[in-house]
Amino acid sequence: MHELSMAEGILKAVIEKSEDNNATEVIEVVVEIGKMVLINPEQIKFLLDVLSEDTIVKGAIFTIEEIPIEIDCPECEYKGKIDDDELDHYAPVVNCPKCGNKRLHITNGKDCIVKNIIIEQED
Ligand SMILES: [Zn+2]
């Protein structure tokens, strides 16, 4: 249950941050998910809705932004984006678009981070 543990982690971070800031309500949460994380954004949104039910985050809008994969190829020195639309969710293989090398440094698109939280505070 990759998605479930990820949704739980996101929610925990949001709750901690909201409590630190004396939030009375959480309006919106923006989450960045790299395509290399291989997660279904719709599923994450659904899980966040369900898991937030009895928390301060209940009713918040979850916005998921997908971050494209970027690589740095040590063979041909290609740096940049790759075609990640056809990425196999079960066995992701990333190739250098220039030389086909598979041993790449992935420089972007492998993280899942809570980018922004919009809260309502007590006056
Ligand atoms: Zn290359």
Automatic annotation (TrEMBL):
One of its GO terms (molecular function) is zinc ion binding. Keywords: Metal-binding, Nickel, Zinc. It holds the Pfam family HypA. GO terms for biological process: protein maturation. InterPro entries: HypA/HybF (IPR000688). The keyword ATP-binding does not apply. Zn(2+) binds at C73, C76, C96, C99. Ni(2+) binds at H2. Belongs to the HypA/HybF family. Involved in the maturation of [NiFe] hydrogenases. Required for nickel insertion into the metal center of the hydrogenase. HAMAP family: HypA_HybF. This is Hydrogenase maturation factor HypA.
